């Protein structure tokens, strides 16, 4: 049986002394963007279903998606899509056993953050 009396040692790092690393934060953000894109996909499916059912239903959801709030949601969804794509490419690179040293991993982290913003702005202005 494990020794229950461990003295005054902390069991795990406390939030006040733990410094979040870029690689862990970008990994968490990858999971968040994946879930956020699911919400945007549901809105788009709702839009298609409303277009197939009735003019009143389509007018409602089309008004919602083309409003300032809908534009914001779609813009953020585009940002999430680019981020998630670039982070996926980074994970594919890591799966091959490359770019695992700390300096390269940090560079890749900053690259996907900056790259997703740049690609989002380019895509938003093209469309």
TrEMBL record:
PROSITE patterns recorded: SDH_CYT_2 (PS01001)
Keywords: Heme, Iron, Membrane, Metal-binding, Transmembrane, Transmembrane helix
SUPFAM superfamilies, per the entry: Fumarate reductase respiratory complex transmembrane subunits
Residues spanning the signal sequence: none
UniProt xrefs under Pfam families: Sdh_cyt
Membrane topology: Multi-pass membrane protein
Gene Ontology terms, MF aspect: electron transfer activity; metal ion binding
Cellular location(s): Membrane
GO annotation terms (biological process): tricarboxylic acid cycle
One GO location term (cellular component): membrane
Transmembrane segments: 28-49, 61-83, 108-126
NCBIfam families: succ_dehyd_cytB
Protein name (database record): Succinate dehydrogenase cytochrome b556 subunit
The organism of origin for this protein: marine sediment metagenome
Organism taxonomic ancestry: unclassified sequences, metagenomes, ecological metagenomes
């Amino acid at each position: 049986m494990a020794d229950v009396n461990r003295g005054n040692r902390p069991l795990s790092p406390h939030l006040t002394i733990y410094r979040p690393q870029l690689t862990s934060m970008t990994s968490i953000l990858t999971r968040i963007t994946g879930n956020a894109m699911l919400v945007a996909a549901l809105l788009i499916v709702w839009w298609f279903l409303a277009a197939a059912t009735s003019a009143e239903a389509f007018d409602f959801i089309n008004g919602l998606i083309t409003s300032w709030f809908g534009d914001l949601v779609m813009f953020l969804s585009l940002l999430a899509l680019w981020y998630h794509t670039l982070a996926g490419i980074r994970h594919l690179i890591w799966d091959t056993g490359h770019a695992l040293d700390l300096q390269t991993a940090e560079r890749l982290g900053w690259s996907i953050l900056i790259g997703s913003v740049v690609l989002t702005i380019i895509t938003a202005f093209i469309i």
